[in-house]
Amino acid sequence: MSLTPQSGIMNIALYEGGKSSIAGRSDVLKLSSNENPLGPPPSAKAAILLAVSEVYRYPSTDHAELRDAIGKAYGLEPEQIICGVGSDEVLQFVCQAFAGEGDEIIHTEHGFSMYPILAHMAGATPVNVAETERVVSVDNILAAVTDATRIVMLANPANPTGTMLPEGELERLARNLPESVILVIDGAYTEYAEGYSGGAELARTMPNVLMTRTFSKVYGLGGLRIGWGYGARGMIDVMTRIRQPFNLSTIQLAAAKAAVEDQDWVPACTALNAAQRARLTGALRQLGVACDESFANFVLARFSDEAEASAVDLALQGEGILVRRVTGYGFPEGLRMTVGDEEQTGRLIAALTKWREGQA
Ligand SMILES: *Cc1c(COP(=O)(O)O)cnc(C)c1O
């Protein structure tokens, strides 16, 4: 090819999303993308319909109303918030603004597959750090930091393991990183971890900690693409310079504002999730399938080997159920299963039980 892309781009392996259909079936239960079984709050749907009549106007460029609403809901300073097209865009801003050729971006062994993609997009080098028994290791990360390190990216709770670092460990990491290194705490699943603030206090008080959050998971708005980041003003100001002025549409802004103002939605969804997550975890263990305690809205089931995971995946598809293969995350023996509502979880457990009984 005579056209030369920027360095790193051809190292990007295309992102693979969870499957969403099975040929010839109309009763598919999609448990492959960690979506909220309850969808978005009704207030957000109503806001979308209302916003339709406004789409001939350009949207707000400073997102002031949405940032105010987020600030109120989470007790944060609106001027330290930046909004993006999903939290993925906020992660892209931080990589592009603070790392480039010759720089290193640390991610961890079983971390979110977007992190190395984002590093390559910025022309930087992703550095993969080992975890300990499927949990992020603060010591391993600190040992991997070099003069070239610019960013450390981790999700807490993590995807696809569902495990998490206690806030004390997050703080130890933040305090021991050089001031020239940004710690990104990706909080896509924060709301599902009871009593956990997502590292908001670290992001408030330290100049080099960025917390990212999303409307895609507990707010049920994955299809609309809205996320945000929170950190020191200096960092947010730099990122804002590379944000397109109209990155969020009128409809995105209206839906997200209504969703975050709905005080009852998060507790209702997380209560349902906690109950069904405990039920699914218990059922898997009873069936002799290994799984760690999850702090998110999915469970990583670990079967005896890759062949067994493939067989279970096929058996579930035979029942119209889609879960996520996680070979690319270092778990060829794993299947990540989104926690559904009561009926959906019942259907998943029944299908797993049928598979196990069919083996005998
Ligand atoms: C789902 C998810 C996100 C959210 O991405 P959006 O771009 O906000 O939809 C971010 N990080 C992790 C680890 C996720 O699993």
CATH superfamily of the largest domain: Type I PLP-dependent aspartate aminotransferase-like (Major domain)
Strand order of the largest sheet: 2-8-7-6-5-3-4
Strand content: 15-25%
The major pleated sheet works out as: 7 strands, mixed
The CATH architecture of the largest domain would be: 3-Layer(aba) Sandwich
Mean pLDDT: 96
Please tally the β strands and state the result: 12
**Unreliable parts:** none
Shape: globular
Which H/E pattern describes the elements? EHHEHEHEHEHEHEEHHHEHEEEH
Write down the CATH class of the largest domain: Alpha Beta
Report on the architecture of this protein.
The chain has helices at 42-51, 64-74, 86-98, 114-121, 138-144, 167-176, 200-205, 233-241, 250-261, 265-286, 306-318, 342-359; strands at residues 29-30, 81-84, 104-108, 125-129, 149-155, 182-186, 209-214, 227-230, 298-302, 321-322, 324-326, 331-338. The relative contact order is 0.16. Helices cover 39% and strands 16% of the residues. Helix 1 packs antiparallel against helix 9 (250-261), helix 2 runs parallel beside helix 9 and helix 3 crosses helix 8 (233-241). The strands form three sheets. It has a seven-stranded mixed β-sheet with strand order 2-8-7-6-5-3-4, with helices on both faces. It has a three-stranded antiparallel β-sheet with strand order 9-12-11. Strands 1-10 form a two-stranded parallel sheet. The chain has 360 residues and is α/β, with parallel strands linked by helices. The chain folds into two domains: 16-39 and 265-359, Aspartate Aminotransferase, domain 1 (Alpha-Beta Complex); 42-261, Aspartate Aminotransferase, domain 2, CATH 3.40.640.10. The structure holds pyridoxal-5'-phosphate. Residues 34, 86-88, 112, 155, 159, 186, 188, 214, 216-217, 222, 227 line the site of pyridoxal-5'-phosphate. The site of pyridoxal-5'-phosphate has 14 residues, from helix 3.
